[in-house]
UniProtKB/TrEMBL annotation:
Full protein name: Alpha,alpha-trehalose-phosphate synthase [UDP-forming]
Source organism of this protein record: Roseivivax jejudonensis
Entry's EC annotation: 2.4.1.15
Gene Ontology annotations of biological process type: trehalose biosynthetic process
CDD domains, alphabetized: GT20_TPS (cd03788)
Amino acid sequence: MSGKLVVVSNRIPTDAAPSGGLVVAVHDALEQSGGLWVGAHPERGGPTDDGLTEIARDSYTRLAFHLSEEEYDNYYLGFSNSVLWPICHGRIDLVEIERCHEATYLAVNRRVARLLAQHIEDDDLVWIHDYHFLPLAQELRRLGVRARIGFFLHIPFPQLSALSTLPTPDDFARWLAAFDLVGLQTRRDTARCLEMFRADPRAEFMPDGTVKFHDRVLAVRSFPIGIEVDGFAAAARAQQDAADLGSDLGDRLVIGVDRLDYSKGLPNRFRAFGAFLGARAPEDPRASLLQIAPPTRERVAAYRAIRTELEEIAGRLNGEFATLDWTPIRYIHHAVERDLLAGLYRRSAACLVTSLADGMNLVAKEYVAAQDPDDPGVLILSRFAGAAEDMTDAILVNPYDITEMADAISTALAMPRDERRARHEACLAAVRDSDVAVWADRFVACLRACPPTLMVGGPGDRAGNLLPYTKHAEPEIQ
Ligand code: GDG
């Protein structure tokens, strides 16, 4: 099949009806257009070089590559999540540089390119997701792939100074330049990416705003990701009607939902809730914080450290403020089912999103979509989350300022209904503008509009030989 959409992401759903924002969007886009979805097999240790394994076929096909245990450690936990993730989230103090991690990262990308190239026709659209695959387009070009290739970075674009922490800092711009379209979450990320190219003597800006890098031209644009708004709102309504969400949660429930990641600002959030509790008069109604924080990447030291820190703070605050019939902080260190989560959002008077750095933050959007528009709760949102760029009617906070966050909790819980409704209406409009289907359509349309890559040096050699490539900003050849 030619002219199809080919999506590559680290995770790939294995069930017939996938759930979760990105997964639903990609699934819907592929159902419309047909095509392929390629990702890492959920089980490690299968054959790594035998081609891609088909894991589902319906209106489109899902194919998986296997990672060995060593590749998972070095490529996924190592270079992806102990170098690229901290660099992009401004935590260069947590970067762990190991030569073998970088080598495996490059080798996995080379192998995925080789497996993928056999499935790509010239008029396909290839959409690659996230920091696990930064060098993938470069490897595909080396194999002679001429299709349009787009990249979407789900996490913040790194600050220029943080890029110097990479073992080979010059690679980053070169990797990106092999794509035709680089999509980022926010205008701030786009500005950072363009700043990187401006500082690079290999790059030149074209009159139409595209970037010429050596002999390639690429476009850089923001595509704020969203959620499936109507589906999420319906799930929240259904939970409110049907389920017993625990009457002892109290009326003044404040919710937080995050993978247990150091970028989410959880210790400061707990400290702010502690400051709020400390400032509370004895006659004030009680409020509780419900924090759902499923574990993630637990074999990386920084993730084990954040868990220990958080348990210590939660234990101390509960020891200080709890009474026989009230536990101020409920901390759940495992995932809860998605529909229940939607109902808990709707039940909560406020939601705390306190990221120190965050590409977008879908929890902020889910919370707003889940509210009863007639009597909505209040979103308290870090200025450092991408979501804050458009959700300006949330209570925006500096997650480094404990007092400001404690005050924001008081303000949210005391906010008059009219103000809550007005803020919610404005936030919901912003959430609807970035509905995940709109996001996917915009990206694919923009990628389709990119001029095609023209090869010099004859047709591509799919066996892995290096070919020179060039791209001219010329009108599309029909
Ligand atoms: C990356 C970027 C960007 C969490 N706990 C449970 C649960 N979740 C779900 C939430 C939400 C998702 O996980 C988390 O999404 P976020 O956007 O908040 O954060 P990351 O995982 O870091 O995602 C981020 C995103 O990619 C998309 O581009 O926004 O900036 O870092 O959907 O609901 N879901 C269930 N149970 C849980 O316990 N069912």
